[in-house]
Design brief:
The structure is a single chain. The chain is α/β, with parallel strands linked by helices. It has two domains: 177 residues, P-loop containing nucleotide triphosphate hydrolases (Rossmann fold); 93 residues, Orthogonal Bundle (Helicase, Ruva Protein, domain 3). The chain has 14 helices and eleven strands. A hairpin with a 4-residue loop joins strand 3 and strand 4. It starts with a helix and ends in a 13-residue tail after the last helix.
Length: 319
């Protein structure tokens, strides 16, 4: 575990050379990567969403690809297509930009639902099917999608099925005045992303992913996660609660957070800390509650308050 923690910290430190003043958000992006998940970054333009994806790809040595989602984008523009070669009389598969290790789906809600659905198989099964032929995607594989929560003109909201496939949703937010000056200083001559070096390899990222799964999580913590997710389903202001995929995401995220914190076990505070990033986008607020300006963050916070917290016990011991 020590080696995996050191590798993960090396990636995080490298990303922070580009993404200044957003340590927790960068940590959540790294947790998503080492858990094998996908990240949805929802924020206004110009706060570093694209740079976060590029910095993570450069730091891990992964192949980076960017897809600019627009209303006229076709599914084949994402997955690729088969091209007929007259010389051989065969069809040759030309992979699309989805065939990479870290894929930036920029402004994902600007594409039509048909094009958005081209990502579903890739995100869930790590493969794409073109003309009846299945092609496996490289590992590690991660989709980092961005969307602007302010401007809705000409956009197509992501369906619940696709939102649920995102491991986490994060908001970067504006930097503090001090951090903004540091950003200006860092980019006065050249952008730091240009000089960012690779600090790990994809093989080492896979090693970290295996180490995360070995972090101990007590049955009482698992029961706490399930109770918390069930509370979102039964909340009076929720039209739709978090799915079992949300339970799995929260469990895996707590394992990764514990490893980054230097622990080989999960504690209840990890669950509380990661509940909103992993469950918030999975909770659909009821129309009546939305009128009262209740959002998913408030629902998740109330569920945390209502669900009893289990006691911490040693591995294999009694409470």
């Amino acid at each position: 575990m020590e080696n995996a923690k050191a590798l993960a910290e090396r990636i995080l430190d490298n990303v922070e050379r580009v993404i200044i003043g957003k340590k927790e958000e960068a940590r959540l992006a790294l947790i998503t990567l080492i858990c094998g998940g996908h990240l949805l970054i929802e924020d206004v333009p110009g706060v570093g969403k694209t740079m976060l994806a590029r910095a993570l790809a450069r730091s891990t040595g992964g192949q980076f690809s960017r897809i600019q989602f627009t209303p006229d984008l076709l599914p084949s523009d994402v997955t690729g297509m088969s091209i007929y070669r007259q010389a051989t009389g065969d069809f040759e598969f030309r992979p699309g930009p989805i065939v990479a290790q870290i894929v930036l789906a920029d402004e994902i809600n600007r594409a039509t639902p048909k094009t958005q659905s081209a990502l579903l198989e890739a995100m869930e099964e790590r493969q794409i099917t073109v003309d009846g032929v299945t092609h496996m995607l490289p590992t590690p594989f991660m989709v980092m999608a961005t969307q602007n929560p302010i401007e809705y003109e000409g956009t197509f909201p992501l369906p619940e099925a696709q939102l649920d496939r995102f491991f986490m949703r994060v908001h970067l937010g504006y930097p503090s005045p001090t951090d903004e000056i540091l950003i200006m200083d860092a980019q006065q001559v050249a952008h730091p992303i240009e000089a960012l070096a690779e600090v790990t390899t994809p093989d080492e990222v896979r090693e970290i992913q295996r180490a995360v799964r070995g972090i101990y999580i007590d049955p009482l913590i698992k029961q706490y996660i399930v109770s918390l997710v069930n509370a979102t389903r039964n909340h009076e202001s929720a039209y739709l609660g978090a799915s079992p995929r949300g339970s799995l995401a929260l469990m895996r995220a707590t394992q990764a957070y514990a490893m980054l914190d230097g622990r080989d076990f999960v504690q209840p505070d990890d669950v509380k800390l990661l509940a909103y990033p992993t469950l918030g986008h999975r909770v659909i607020v009821a129309p009546g509650a939305r009128v009262r300006e209740i959002d998913s963050a408030q629902i998740v916070d109330e569920c945390i308050e209502r669900v009893p917290v289990p006691g911490v016990r040693a591995r294999g011991g009694s409470a």
